[in-house]
Amino acid sequence: MQSESRICQNCEQSFVIDPDDFAFYEKIQVPSPTWCPECRTIRRFTFRNERTIYRRTCDLCKKAMVSVYHPSSPFTVYCYECFYGDKWDQLSSGRDYDFSKSFFEQYRELALRAPKLGLQVSNDLVNTEYGNHIGGDKNCYLVFASVNNEDCMYCTYVSYSRNVVDGLRIFKSEACFDSVDCENCSNIKYSQQCQNSLDSSFLYNCRGCSNCFMCSNLVGKSYCARNKQYSKEEYQKIIGAATLGSRASVSALIGEFIKLKQYSLQRSIEGFNHVNSSGNNLRNTKNCKVCFDLSEGEDSGYVVYGNDVKDTMDAYAVYPKTELCYETVGSGAPSYNAKFSYLPWAGSDLTYCINAFSGCHDCFGCNHVHNVRYCVMNKQYSKEEYEALVPKIIEHMKTMPYSDKKGRIYSYGEFFPPELSPFAYNETIVQEHFPLSKEETIAGGYAWRDPDTKSYQITKKPEDLPDDIQSVDDSILNETIGCAHKGECHHQCATAFKVIKDELTFYRRMDIPLPQLCQNCRHYERLAMRNPLKLWHRTCACSGKESGIRNQNSGNEHVYQNTTTHFHGEKPCPNEFETSYAPDRPEIVYCEQCYQAEVV
């Protein structure tokens, strides 16, 4: 079978389906997609509300709760105890399938009937009320998509860690602040892409380092500042002069750190042991294409954030032991043969299901059910009845497709239409990775929710906060601090925030100045530090002894001097690759061979 070029039904741009894709679609018996990979990603992301939470009341027990569903949403929402309790029948929302209506029209009606779980959390949380997509956390506050942490605050995708504040994608670390993509680190601040490092600040892409400051691409170093070796005594004088407890000083250092990253040598793909794979942040992958933040993956494509994944395409947040899944979000633990589903968790043979939890098997078109089998549209059938009915529904979806408000057609083989998402575009992670204005969102056929009117009584302006943390007394705990963005950004700004007691203790212990931005705006600043979920075709910038003159026309020239002889000698490197660094960016990007010759 040969590659075929198609026109995306959504963006009307061309995209290619290659032979491996066709083989996968044939293997799981689904038609080839009509949306391009990026539009398919956006469509899935519109169903994933990770960080937008509200106060509301449980519709069953009437107790106050935190939920991802706005109080004005049309859904019935239960707290965790009620949803998994025995005071209601989860299949009472089921109905016979109606062959006079399209499948998605009927699914919309089912979604309005079936009660929803207010938060995606486990039952082993301890003193952790404010968070979503979390499990095993203790004494954590505003943590999202994170598991098995203790004493963490304002974190997303942080796991097996302690005392982490303002973290994004932190693993097995402790006492870390404002850091991104770090693993096995301790007592680090303002750092990115570091492993097995400690007692350091402003590190970029360093491994096995300790007591280092404003350094990049170092391995196994100590007492280095600005990539220069010092004695212990000299280093301590430099750190003392840096005054990291001062906001003005830290602000200047952040500007220096941004330039340090731009001028540092970059590898085409972050990660290691990525065999015949493309994307970024890949570890131990084989035959994986256009994947991001994937480890232990094989024969998969278009996966964003996954671990232990095999034979899976078009998926987000796929957890250990996901196999033969397609167009899914939040599958795993384990999941097998799940298609067009959101949170097909710990089950198998699930199709067009949203929130099928804890051991669901052989279900089609179900919504918010757990531990059921042979169900269609939340109605129970025998095995024989189920196996006879499902093929008829699939054929009906082909002969009576659904058309959305933009005229896009949804037959069998398409993920849920975005207009069936229970969330607005700007409530979900799609706004983080593919941001749109309100006007652009509505024009694209997506829902938008205007922020609730904020009426906070600001008692402390951000510019009036003390510069040095040592000048802050406990009275700050009683202040309502205005966010410096004043709601004028596109970061879901909270417009105001408070400092809690544990947070202040952390700042004092770590010598960190008080923030001037709310937690949402700080989260978006960390997101901006990572590369986009896109790839560009480029040639290695290594040209011999002097390599990588970039952006000459913009005046941002930089030359990297190689430290050793590469396989291509003094001639330009011939290697080409796909990378998440756009061609117009200032960084010097090397292929894996040239990068390893210089850094590894």
Protein architecture, described:
By secondary structure, this protein is α/β, with parallel strands linked by helices. It folds into 5 domains: 1-49 and 311-450, no CATH class; 54-121, no CATH class; 161-263, no CATH class; 462-527, no CATH class; 536-598, no CATH class. Strands 7, 8, 9, 10, 11, 12, 13, 14, 15, 16 and 17 form an 11-stranded mixed sheet that branches. The radius of gyration is 25 Å and the shape is globular. 46% of the residues are buried.
Element layout with pairings:
Elements: E1 4-7, E2 14-17, H1 19-28, H2 37-45, E3 54-57, E4 64-67, E5 77-78, H3 80-83, H4 103-113, E6 116-117, E7 131-135, E8 141-147, E9 153-159, E10 162-171, E11 174-183, E12 186-189, E13 192-195, E14 198-204, E15 210-216, E16 222-225, E17 228-229, H5 232-242, H6 247-263, E18 265-267, E19 271-275, E20 279-289, E21 291-310, E22 313-318, E23 322-323, E24 326-329, E25 332-351, E26 354-357, E27 361-364, E28 367-370, E29 373-376, E30 379-380, H7 383-399, E31 402-403, E32 409-410, H8 430-433, H9 438-443, E33 481-482, E34 496-497, H10 501-510, H11 519-527, E35 536-539, E36 546-547, E37 560-561, E38 576-579, E39 588-590, H12 592-598
